[in-house]
Design brief:
Oligomer: single chain
Low-confidence stretches: none
Mean pLDDT: 85
Distance between the termini: 27 Å
Length: 73
Amino acid sequence: MGGNFKVYHSLTRHDEAKHGKWEGLTGRINLDMLKKCGLPEPSDDLFLATCGPKGFGDTITAPLADLGYVKGE
């Protein structure tokens, strides 16, 4: 994939003894985690997609708005 595409995965619950080692992000996504990911500045030509279980959209909307992202239609 080109340099303009990045994917970040976060495991909300991870039990290393049961699931093995995980070096990616862990925990619920929040403003600090998003800042650590180094997202680009919001712009008209940027597409940012999220997915997750029911209710995740409500959880991620506020931190993204704090970073200046506007929810599209």
